Amino acid sequence: MASPPTTRLDAAHFDAQALRWDENPAFRARGEKLAQAIRQAVPLGPHMRALDYGSGTGLLSFPLKDELGSILLADSSGGMLEVAARKIAEQGVRNLATVKLDLLVDPLPGQRFDLIYTSMTLHHVPDTDRILRIFHALLKPGGCLCVADLDQEDGSFHGPEVDVHHGFDRAELSRRAAKAGFDDVRFQTVFSIAKEQENGARDYPVFLMSAQRANHP
Ligand SMILES: C[S@@+](CC[C@H](N)C(=O)[O-])C[C@H]1O[C@@H](n2cnc3c(N)ncnc32)[C@H](O)[C@@H]1O
């Protein structure tokens, strides 16, 4: 029997979700919990320039903004970035900026970063090895990468019709990060997302991987 057609969750999908994204208390709580996990994994400071890749509306960057010098919120969804930009303007925040960016398609930005973090976005990026190499290239020597995403699951998180990575096996992702040039790869479990499935409630753990770009150029 032929498999059902699958669909990618593209920028238009996230554009359509953007206006109501921050209404979801689970998304807001996720940002706070991941911000705390990043604080524990990486020493933050006012000299640091950070990139939030797949930032959405900035739910992870707003909690971190007073502990970093500047943060660039990058996303392929213009709708998500419009919401982020409105929040930045309304709150008079001076160290957050937005850019529409798909690093697998667009030219790399000219800046280099002390910290790159990405929350629940890696599973949407088709080529994991390539995006890890790009993150490595965008970090200054000694800079840190933090990736928050789902542990490997059976595809039930998004459902069979959605074409995304089914989370990540930690050992495999660790090998891929090392191959891309990262050292000191560590994992912690930050929280779990509970979802009601046909055969009952199911928990999907979310990890934070932290890694360092070696201190030589
Ligand atoms: C599940 S949402 C997470 C948003 C935000 N990080 C959060 O935790 O609230 C995934 C985000 O990744 C963005 N995204 C997906 N693929 C991307 C890509 N190739 N480049 C940049 N952003 C991407 C989507 O537009 C969306 O905003």
Compact summary:
This protein is α/β, with parallel strands linked by helices and 217 residues long.
Low-confidence spans: pLDDT under 50, at least 5 residues?
A: none
Number of domains: 1
Name of the top-level CATH class? Alpha Beta
Would you identify the CATH H-level superfamily? Vaccinia Virus protein VP39
Q: What gyration radius follows from the Cα positions, in whole Å? A: 17 Å
What report would you give on this structure?
This protein has a seven-stranded mixed sheet with strand order 3-2-1-4-5-7-6. The chain starts with 10 loop residues before the first helix and ends with a strand. The mean pLDDT is 95. The chain has helices spanning 11-21, 25-41, 61-64, 78-90, 128-138, 170-179, and strands spanning 49-53, 70-75, 96-100, 113-119, 139-150, 182-197, 200-213. The longest helix is centred in the first third of the chain and has 17 residues, at 25-41. The radius of gyration is 17 Å and the shape is globular. It has one domain (11-213): Vaccinia Virus protein VP39 (Rossmann fold, 3-Layer(aba) Sandwich), CATH 3.40.50. It has 217 residues and is of the alpha/beta class.
